[in-house]
Design a protein that fits this description.
- The protein is an alpha/beta fold and 235 residues long.
- The protein has a single domain, classed as Spore Coat Polysaccharide Biosynthesis Protein SpsA, Chain A (Alpha-Beta Complex).
- Helices cover 31% and strands 25% of the residues.
- The protein has a 7-stranded mixed β-sheet.
- α3 runs antiparallel to α5 and α5 packs across α6.
- It is globular and about 55 Å long.
- The protein starts with 6 loop residues before the first strand and ends with a helix.
- 37% of the residues are buried.
- It binds cytidine-5'-monophosphate (C5P).
């Protein structure tokens, strides 16, 4: 922390995870005795730099039990919204009485429990020295194809300079909130925080992370996440 600037996290955890095909949202599924969400909270709270965290959730009975286990640092609750970007905005709204416009906010998907301690550190270090924020990601390593409406290849896309965008995505509180509002007002499709920042004219920094920062999306991702957590010594 420099000049009284603080770091906060916003965890959007109010999705329903339709592609998972489970009875409960994927962030509440169990991974070796804990929910996916708890593994994600553990990853974020492992960083001593964070002043506190906003958890954006729907009214789920399990939330109360989870929240009770996290008393060591500030945990603020906010309500989910229609799309992920609305949930993030609700989370930012809940930060108003705690954070200053220059503080940093790390937005991290609840469905990414395997983010590494070291990648979080690398992001914090790299982006704290940048002007317009940044995010974890990874250059693509497969050959990229563009498909036509029939599922046939219409082009092979040059992969030079192409990255996959992960979370956390780290921006100053004030500019991030302004960019999200502006994007929604303009009818711009907000796929992630960086896209809203780009729309507002910023050039976020891409910070190279690791491929184990998967977003749990389909049933086969659960055993994979379990493997990655075990590899990191977190089980
Ligand atoms: O659906 P997807 O995997 O892209 O969601 C990414 C993250 O955003 C998840 O952690 C999910 O819970 C969250 N989300 C949310 N509010 C929504 C939709 C998704 O908090 N309306």
């Amino acid at each position: 922390m420099t000049d009284g600037i603080q770091y906060w996290a916003v965890i959007p955890a109010a999705g329903i995870g339709r592609r998972m095909g489970a009875d409960i949202p994927k962030q509440y599924l169990e991974l070796s005795g804990k929910t996916v969400l708890e593994h994600t909270l553990d990853a974020l709270y492992s960083r001593p730099e964070l002043a506190g965290l906003v958890l954006v959730v729907d009214d789920q009975p399990v939330v109360k039990d989870i929240v009770r286990r996290y008393t060591q640092r500030k945990l603020i609750l906010a309500r989910g919204g229609k799309e992920r970007c609305h949930s993030v905005l609700n989370g930012l709204q809940a930060l108003h009485s705690h954070a200053r416009p220059d503080d940093w906010v790390l937005v991290h998907d609840a469905a990414r429990p395997c983010v590494r301690f070291s990648d979080l550190g690398y992001l914090l270090e790299s982006v704290s020295n940048s002007a317009s924020g940044g995010l974890l990601g990874l250059p693509v390593c497969d050959t990229m194809k563009r498909a036509d409406a029939d599922g046939r290849i219409s082009a092979t896309v040059d992969r030079a300079g192409l990255w996959r965008a992960f979370t956390p995505q780290m921006f100053r509180f004030g500019p991030l909130e302004a960019a999200l509002h502006q994007a929604l007002d303009d009818g711009f499709e907000v796929t992630d925080e960086a896209s809203a920042m780009e729309h507002a004219g910023h050039c976020p920094l891409l910070v190279e992370g690791h491929a184990d920062n998967i977003k749990i999306t389909r049933p086969e991702d659960l055993p994979l996440a379990e493997y990655f957590l075990a590899q990191q010594g977190r089980l």
